[in-house]
Amino acid sequence: MIVAYWIVAAPLGLLLLFAGWKKTTQSQERLAPMMGWVDTVPMPLVRFIGAVEILGAAGLVLPPLTGIAPALAVAAAIGFAVLQILAAALHLSRGEVKETGLNVPLILLAGVTAWLATAF
To answer: CB–CB of 75/91 below 8 Å?
Structure first.
């Protein structure tokens, strides 16, 4: 089960890290073509979401690696699922049904990651 955790959590962590890095470092103009919702949300909130994603990536990787507070990996995976549920709700409220196509698999992947993290 531990190998399965890393097979699922590593790509999820990389995705979180990449998305968080983009949201914390790029301007609204650079983000808008990829993420149309940044025009309707204050940039401090976009930066906060990015920081949460970076911390989530750390929460998926560091506790299981170090053995310190491994329950944080479960919390990070659940937090990512909640973040994706909120993202899907935002897309649906904007009429962007196609954009939720990535949210659903990510919610499922985060749920599987949370379940696998209970092995630690």
So the answer is: no
